[in-house]
Specification:
The chain starts with a strand and ends with a helix. The chain is globular and about 50 Å long. It has a single domain, classed as Rossmann fold, CATH 3.40.50. Helices cover about 25% and strands about 30% of the residues. By secondary structure, it is α/β, with parallel strands linked by helices. Helix 1 links the parallel strand 1 and strand 2. Helix 1 packs across helix 6. It has an eight-stranded mixed sheet. A four-stranded mixed sheet has the order 6-5-7-11, with helices on one face. It contains six helices and 14 strands.
Length: about 210
């Protein structure tokens, strides 16, 4: 039975993410909510959620002794499939520019900056349902149509240095990164656990993903 580690570092919508993963997996494996580096290191899949400010989330991850090292060993060295959700995706960047400049994990080149929609009537945070524009095919998007609606709650966006790392975008007064992916690493700016059937399809794809 496979093990998916849902990382608890004090900043994430863990209950709904855990339930959504369990539904998507349909009993095929264990979902472990954990901050234990030993469990993270041996997991077949890893999910990093995140809600709140970039700096606070990064501080929470680094505060758990051995967690960053376990993540790097599993994801960067062994190729364990990884999914970051919302701020969990943003932490993959080199730097977050929220309340100053803060180093991220640096796994996917880019920066996290405040949303700046061209239409001044659009509110920050961006909150609600928006369409996905799929940039390229990917196993995580199997069965998900271009234009599918997903649920966002965020005030900052991931700007990837390499456009090839962008998997999907949305429009909110301009193009905003909705998904990134490189190798065994992927992330969603939207919340799949709040995105109903589309979110369930994406999580199911992730639980079956073998990059």
């Amino acid at each position: 039975m496979s093990l998916t580690a849902l990382i608890d570092y004090g900043s994430g919508n863990l209950r709904s993410a855990e339930k959504a993963l369990a539904r998507a997996g349909a009993g095929a494996g264990e979902i472990a909510v954990t901050n234990d580096p030993a469990i993270v290191a041996k997991a077949e899949r890893i999910v990093l959620p995140g809600v709140g400010a970039f700096a606070d989330c990064m501080k929470g991850v680094r505060a758990i002794a051995g967690l960053v090292e376990a993540l790097e060993e599993a994801v960067l060295k062994r190729g364990t499939p990884f999914l970051g959700i919302c701020v969990g995706m943003q932490l993959l960047a080199d730097v977050g520019r929220e309340f100053g400049e803060h180093a991220g994990l640096g796994w996917i080149a880019g920066e996290v900056v405040r949303l700046a929609p061209a239409d001044a009537a659009l509110k920050i945070p961006h909150m609600g349902w928006n369409e996905l524009t799929i940039a390229r095919p990917h196993p995580l998007l199997a069965g998900i149509a271009d234009g599918a609606h997903v649920y966002f709650v965020h005030s900052y966006e991931f700007r990837a240095r390499d456009a090839g790392d962008v998997l999907a975008t949305t429009d909110y007064g301009g193009t905003v990164t909705a998904m990134i992916a490189r190798g065994n690493i992927a992330g969603t700016q939207f919340h799949p656990e709040k995105s109903q059937a589309v979110g369930q399809a994406l999580l199911r794809n992730f639980l079956n993903w073998r990059p």
